[in-house]
């Protein structure tokens, strides 16, 4: 069987949510099924680290697909032209877009419908593209996969897609996220937090992640506790961040906040394992991997009480209304003052994170691939 995979988010030094999802699944599937050929479709020169085994064949299809007009041209013209010569049995589209012109069966992965719920957090150009074409993509795809029961129900409610057409393939945290020795934790704290304990946020820096309310909550926490606690923010600056950066310039506790930008995976794992707690107050997530990464590191989690977060985190997180920065601060204070409760959350996290693994995700997506070829 020939399995074509859209791999445009497999980019060295820029491997974030979508890219990790594809990497972790298809490096497993390519090795597990050597009898099948995996066609990796890039939109730029690729790094050899992403050619996971001898049965992976890369194609570079230019120009880069990075804005609305380029999306349309890349998916419906250039990709279609290449696939006519490749003749795959199935095309896996992991980023919410698919081609409207090819006849080969497509498996469409839709991670979330955040653009419908928070349209103010996306550019007008991209919002128009998502709103116009997402219903067409969902109809065109032979099968749809998504990363939580919450997202599946959202797709059904918004677009009336039959439940039996949608598979849930939960995401996961990678094994590199694990507990670390005291000496490593101490070194990380010295390197990034002046030797102090720190709260951690990880994820792309844009308004949907709710960093402004996190800063307000951290400010209240500092006033209440008079502690030397720091706040580390790890993630690439994405879009609509001018307001956040401007406010940070005059922020009273600016010296206690560090924007670390994009950090390589191994270092991110060490930073996560050394944190006092992860704060993840996002307004909307189809899955939300950082809380599971923290749980694997024996780090307690404060997260939002909305979208998929209660489904993914279960009883292993402290929940707060993302619109209520005072409530977020209260939860930070709770973890800080009550060590028994903090340890309870850590122990619950050890159990919760074991419910998710990339091996299981890969198996679930493989079953979805087989359903796409058999329908």
Topology:
Blueprint: E1 2-6, H1 17-32, E2 37-42, E3 56-60, H2 68-86, E4 90-93, E5 106-109, H3 114-117, H4 124-140, E6 143-146, H5 149-159, E7 166-168, H6 182-193, E8 198-202, H7 211-225, E9 230-234, H8 242-249, E10 257-261, H9 265-273, E11 277-280, H10 290-296, E12 301-304, H11 309-313, E13 318-320, H12 325-337, H13 339-352, H14 358-374
Helix pairs in contact: 1-14, 7-12, 10-13
Task: Quickly list its features.
Rossmann fold; 15% strand; six-stranded parallel beta sheet; 375 residues; alpha/beta; 14 helices; 13 strands; 2 domains
Number of domains: 2
Number of strands: 13
Biggest sheet strand line-up: 3-2-1-4-5-6-7
Molecular shape: globular
The CA-CA distance between the termini, in Å, is 15 Å
Structural class: alpha/beta
Uncertain ranges: none
| Radius of gyration, taken over Cα atoms and rounded to an integer in Å | 21 Å
Please give the oligomerization state of what you see. single chain
Largest sheet: 7 strands, parallel
How does this model look, in words?
- With 375 residues, this protein is an alpha/beta fold.
- The protein folds into two domains: 2-172 and 357-374, 3-Layer(aba) Sandwich (Rossmann fold), CATH 3.40.50.2000; 182-355, 3-Layer(aba) Sandwich (Rossmann fold), CATH 3.40.50.
- 45% of the residues lie in helices and 15% in strands.
- The strands form two sheets. The protein has a seven-stranded parallel sheet with strand order 3-2-1-4-5-6-7, with helices on both faces. A six-stranded parallel sheet has the order 10-9-8-11-12-13, sandwiched between helices.
- Strand 1 (2-6), helix 1 and strand 2 (37-42) form a beta-alpha-beta unit.
- Helix 10 (290-296) packs across helix 13.
- It is globular and about 65 Å long.
- The model has no long low-confidence stretch (mean pLDDT 94).
């Amino acid at each position: 069987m020939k399995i074509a995979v859209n791999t445009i988010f497999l980019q060295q030094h820029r491997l974030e949510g979508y890219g990790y999802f594809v990497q972790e699944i298809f490096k497993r599937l390519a090795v597990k099924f050597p009898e099948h050929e995996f066609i990796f479709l890039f939109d730029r020169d690729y790094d050899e680290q992403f050619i996971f085994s001898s049965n992976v064949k890369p194609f570079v299809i230019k120009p880069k697909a990075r804005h609305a007009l380029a999306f349309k041209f890349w998916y419906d013209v250039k990709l279609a032209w290449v696939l006519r010569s490749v003749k795959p049995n199935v095309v896996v589209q992991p980023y919410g877009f698919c081609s409207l012109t090819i006849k080969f069966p497509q498996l469409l992965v839709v991670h979330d419908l955040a653009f419908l719920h928070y349209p103010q957090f996306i550019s007008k150009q991209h919002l128009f593209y998502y709103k116009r074409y997402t219903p067409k993509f969902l109809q065109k795809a032979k099968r749809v996969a998504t990363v939580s029961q919450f997202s599946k129900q959202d797709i059904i409610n918004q677009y009336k897609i039959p439940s039996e057409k949608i598979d849930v393939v939960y995401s996961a945290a990678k094994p590199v996220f694990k507990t670390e020795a005291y000496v490593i934790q101490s070194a990380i704290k010295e390197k990034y937090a002046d030797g102090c304990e720190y709260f951690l946020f990880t994820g792309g820096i844009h308004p949907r992640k709710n960093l402004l309310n996190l800063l307000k909550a951290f400010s209240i926490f500092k006033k209440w506790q008079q502690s030397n606690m720091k706040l580390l923010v790890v993630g690439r600056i994405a879009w609509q961040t001018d307001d956040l950066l401007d406010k940070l310039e005059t922020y009273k506790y600016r010296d206690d906040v560090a924007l670390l930008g994009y950090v390589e995976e191994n270092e991110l794992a060490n930073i996560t394992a050394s944190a006092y707690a992860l704060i993840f107050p996002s307004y909307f997530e189809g899955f939300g991997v950082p809380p599971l990464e923290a749980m694997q590191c024996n780090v307690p989690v404060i997260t939002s009480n909305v979208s998929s977060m209660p489904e993914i985190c279960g009883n292993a997180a402290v929940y707060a209304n993302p619109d209520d920065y005072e409530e977020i601060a209260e939860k930070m204070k709770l973890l800080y003052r009550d060590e028994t409760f903090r340890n309870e959350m850590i122990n619950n996290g050890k159990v919760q994170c074991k419910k998710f693994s990339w091996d299981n995700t890969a198996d679930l997506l493989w079953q979805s691939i087989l359903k796409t070829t058999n329908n």
